Amino acid sequence: MEEVHKGPESSTDYIIHHLTNLHTSGGTFWTELHIDSIFYSVFLGILFAGGFYLVARKATSGIPGKMQSFIELIVEFVDTQVKDSYHGSSKLIAPLALTIFCWVFLMNFMDLIPVDLLPAIGASVGIEYMKVVPTTDLNITFGMSLTVFLLMIFYSIKIKGVGGFAREIFFQPFGKWLLPFNFLLKVIEEIAKPVSLGLRLFGNLYAGELIFILIALFTLSAGAHTLSESLVNLIQPQTLVFFIIQLVLGLVWALFHIIIITLQAFIFMMLTIVYLSMAHESH
């Protein structure tokens, strides 16, 4: 008789299960893909772009609707941050900042969906693992930060020229007599930017997701194998108390986490603007 998968058997298995990505089998470090992170990143990117496109098509110069007013509020907010922080001239920076803020916020927002909901739906169609928050995947956050890093290098060379970029690397800040030391400091400074950018976003969202998972362990649904068992266990007084505690803690943390996911999207956007502004400046 074929064995039926019953899900995680313990709290440790439950946590590990939720923190494991759905990935391609037989891959190496360079070829293994996290399918769930890629899917939700692309889906949320399309949702963001499609939503803005539909609102732009229906935009009016008269009395705007609620959705148009909301989009205009976001655009004006991002545009103000770019004008205050970016000292160069580029038509790319404002759209890039808007895309980063909205896209990162949507990916972070997935953390507010109940941790068992989408994985349970996936399990019902045979998907064993599913991480639904792309920013809890280091590959996603580092991918975005490396893109920002490449743009920094591109604009540094475009604005200052190859010679100016080389002089900044080798002769700043201590002149030609400490050329190796200048180069080492510059390399460390530049590498620290994408590393800190990616790790900051990943660390905050990973910790937030882990707390949601730990809160979910207050109910027996995390260890129950079937829906009927969950319903039977929920009738028990002790389980009902834990269920209420889980709801209260989950609500409190979710309300606080709204601030975190918004702040992290804002920080990622602002650091991107600042780094690209620095790339346009000559020291």
Task: Give your account of this protein's structure.
Helices cover 71% and strands 0% of the residues. It has nine helices and no strands. The protein has helices at 11-18, 35-57, 66-85, 93-109, 117-124, 138-171, 179-216, 227-235, 237-280. The model is unreliable at 1-7 and 222-232 (pLDDT under 50).
Average residue-wise pLDDT: 82
Q: Give the helix/strand class.
A: mainly alpha
What does the overall shape look like? globular
Proportion of strand residues: under 5%
Work out the number of β strands. 0
Helical fraction: over 70%
Cα-atom radius of gyration: 23 Å
Tell me the major beta sheet.
none
Number of domains: 1
The total count of helices amounts to: 9
Q: Can you give keywords for this protein?
A:
283 residues, mainly alpha, 71% helix
Helix and strand arrangement:
Blueprint: H1 11-18, H2 35-57, H3 66-85, H4 93-109, H5 117-124, H6 138-171, H7 179-216, H8 227-235, H9 237-280
Helix pairs in contact: 2-4, 3-4, 4-9, 6-7, 6-9, 7-9
